[in-house]
């Protein structure tokens, strides 16, 4: 983004400059590839001419119905979910100064989930329009709660995770109670809880696309705040930065992003953890690069994972959330073990 | 300049800082010394507005700090707190660019004025050759110089340093002290620092403020302050003092109890 040209004009080159450019280009290409794959992959296959005829020339054939009505909204929603989860994760990790903060792990997603589930079970009629707002209220409330409970002269990494895990457990219990109390209506919520974009169509896309665009545009402003906060609260304050205001904005934004993803896809974990983490190892922690790269990476991962989840296990369709947890669980352990080894040697 | 008027700060039940009057004079190097827990850093942090006094006021150019806009203070007063976070990954150049934060709107590019100040800050701290290195790859002394360069990029005329030489070996300590002296003499910066090493404080400062139990015990030139009685009262040690250009002290033994209560 703005950083690219600024680097050149200075005459000096950042040591990671080439890597950053290459990674961003590869991510764009990878994402295009993944989208193409997702369009063609599935139990029913077409040639590209059939597809173009169907979609562009409005012929009512099999290709049009399957691609236009089923696969395309699903791909677009996958993109939105991936972008939102990855951005939410990167921002949370920056603002809480903890590489393990992830909307799924510390309970932000389940906070969104518990409100959304309540709406789906108890007020199913209003849920369609207000689901994203309800999810946002839940996500934001939970994030603030975690933040204030773990804030003690700076939020320590351990406290955030511990508080987050505790809150996550509490919310899990509330969710279970809800489902027991309303066991007759659980069927409609179940696929949503395991995290998937299986049955989505254009109506869900319309429900979230507006919120998603707003949140993504706001994310362009987040990089500056994350960069200054990375110096630590005290130095940021001494530079005249309004630390508390920045942090509030970033928490609000990451909750909104997580809520958008949750309201349409349910509880998909690990995208917000895995994607920023891998990218940070390659291109560094500068939010000007990390945020766009994470957005692309998240979109790539969810699109690809969803395409695999619905084709590899034919005739069963595995929810993408389950598929990602199978991948993400071991990865999370890998990070923890690697971190431990690092601490042991240094 | 900075003026502390009737300030007090309740740090905990047991510790309260009280400074009735402390005026910073333009162009001086003032060092705050004293034993651990005497309130040296607390005083500096109050002057640097990291903490707000419980009562009383600190005036910058006659206006209370609380009435200033954050960026406007940052243009006039720079402070380097003790930085313990060594995981910060920025390159030296990027770090120094942050020093321009109070001067520019965030979406604007660096102006030629900004560039000039950054180049000067890197030059005077001798960090030009390191500018594209990440902070994590620097030695303690280099890293400290990089952070000082960032505060210099604020182009303020007051610089507060909280124990700038801690954790550095003696050569790097002197390097930092020489840098402070250059900044003061050649570029007219007014410097306030908290120092542990009293001989270094004496050698490089125009004025010493001695803290004891949250109060200013003595305030004066090194010659006035560096007396056996001061060491006895404040640190509880017996010293031998040698007078050359500036007085230096050699610690002899602790004197049983007194002083540090």
Automatic annotation (TrEMBL), chain A:
Membrane-topology descriptor: Multi-pass membrane protein
GO biological process, one term: siderophore-iron import into cell
Annotated keywords: Cell membrane, Membrane, Transmembrane, Transmembrane helix, Transport
Protein family (similarity comment): Belongs to the binding-protein-dependent transport system permease family. FecCD subfamily.
Main localization category: membrane
Transmembrane segments: 21-40, 72-92, 104-123, 129-149, 161-182, 202-223, 248-275, 316-337
GO cellular-component term (any): plasma membrane
UniProt-recorded Gene Ontology molecular function terms: transmembrane transporter activity
InterPro entries, A to Z: ABC_BtuC-like (IPR037294), ABC_transptr_permease_BtuC (IPR000522)
Localization annotation: Cell membrane
Protein name: Iron complex transport system permease protein
From TrEMBL, chain B:
Domain of life the protein comes from: Bacteria
Domain ABC transporter intervals: 2-238
Record localization: Cell membrane
Pfam family, one: ABC_tran
Biological processes annotated in GO: iron ion transport
Entry annotated with the keyword Cell membrane: yes
Membrane topology: Peripheral membrane protein
Entry keyword set: ATP-binding, Cell membrane, Ion transport, Iron, Iron transport, Membrane, Nucleotide-binding, Transport
GO cellular component, one term: plasma membrane
Official protein name in the record: Iron complex transport system ATP-binding protein
Source organism: Baia soyae
Taxonomic path: Bacteria, Bacillati, Bacillota, Bacilli, Bacillales
């Amino acid at each position: 983004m703005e950083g690219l040209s600024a680097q050149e004009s200075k005459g000096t080159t950042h040591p990671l400059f080439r890597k950053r450019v290459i990674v961003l280009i590869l991510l764009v290409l990878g994402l295009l590839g993944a989208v193409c794959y997702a369009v063609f992959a599935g139990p029913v296959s077409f040639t590209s001419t059939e597809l173009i005829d169907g979609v562009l020339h409005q012929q009512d054939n099999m290709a049009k119905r399957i691609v236009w009505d089923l696969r395309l909204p699903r791909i677009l929603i996958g993109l939105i979910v991936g972008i939102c989860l990855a951005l939410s994760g990167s921002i949370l990790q920056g603002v809480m100064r903890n590489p393990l903060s992830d909307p799924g792990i510390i309970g932000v997603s389940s906070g969104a989930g518990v409100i959304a589930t309540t709406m789906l079970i108890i007020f199913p009629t209003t849920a369609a329009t207000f689901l994203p707002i309800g999810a946002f209220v839940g996500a934001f409330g939970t994030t603030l709660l975690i933040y204030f409970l773990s804030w003690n002269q700076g939020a320590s990494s351990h406290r955030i995770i511990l508080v987050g895990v505790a809150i996550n457990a509490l919310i899990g219990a509330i969710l279970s109670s809800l489902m027991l109390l309303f066991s007759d209506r659980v069927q409609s919520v179940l696929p949503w809880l395991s995290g998937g974009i299986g049955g989505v169509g254009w109506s869900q896309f319309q429900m979230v696309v507006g919120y998603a665009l707003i949140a993504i545009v706001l994310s362009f402003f987040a990089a500056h705040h994350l960069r200054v906060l990375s110096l630590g609260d005290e130095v940021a304050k001494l530079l005249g930065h309004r630390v508390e205001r920045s942090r509030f904005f970033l928490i609000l934004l990451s909750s909104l992003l997580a809520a958008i993803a949750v309201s349409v896809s349910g509880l998909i974990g690990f995208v917000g953890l895995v994607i920023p983490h891998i990218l940070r190892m390659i291109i560094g922690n500068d939010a000007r690069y990390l945020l766009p790269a994470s957005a692309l990476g998240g979109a790539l991962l969810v699109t690809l994972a969803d395409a695999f989840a619905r084709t590899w296990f034919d005739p069963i369709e595995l929810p993408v959330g389950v598929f990602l947890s199978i991948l993400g669980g071991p990865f999370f352990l890998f990070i923890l073990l690697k971190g431990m080894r690092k601490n042991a040697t240094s | 300049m900075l003026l502390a008027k009737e300030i007090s700060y309740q740090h905990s039940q047991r510790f309260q800082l009280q400074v009735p009057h402390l005026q910073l004079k333009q162009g001086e190097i003032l060092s705050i010394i004293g034993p651990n827990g005497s309130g040296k850093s607390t005083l500096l942090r109050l002057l640097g507005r990291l903490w707000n006094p419980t009562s009383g006021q600190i005036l910058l150019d006659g206006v209370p700090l609380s009435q200033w806009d954050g960026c406007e203070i940052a243009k006039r007063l720079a402070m380097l707190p003790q930085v313990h976070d060594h995981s910060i990954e920025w390159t030296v150049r990027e770090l120094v660019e942050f020093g321009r934060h109070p001067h520019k709107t965030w979406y604007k590019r660096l102006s030629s004025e900004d560039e000039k100040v950054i180049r000067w800050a890197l030059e005077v701290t001798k960090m030009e050759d390191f500018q594209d290195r990440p902070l994590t790859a620097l030695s303690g002394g280099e890293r400290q110089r990089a952070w000082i360069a960032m505060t210099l990029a604020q182009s303020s005329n007051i610089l507060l340093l909280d124990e700038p030489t801690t954790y550095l070996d003696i050569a790097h300590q002197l390097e930092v002290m020489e840098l402070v002296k250059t900044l003061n003499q050649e570029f007219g910066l007014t410097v306030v620092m908290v120092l542990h090493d009293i001989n270094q404080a004496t050698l490089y400062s125009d004025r010493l403020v001695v803290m004891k139990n949250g109060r200013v015990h003595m305030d004066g030139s090194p010659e006035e302050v560096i007396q056996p009685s001061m060491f006895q009262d404040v640190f509880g040690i017996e010293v031998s003092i040698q007078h050359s250009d500036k007085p230096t002290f050699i610690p002899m033994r602790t004197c049983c109890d007194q002083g540090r209560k």
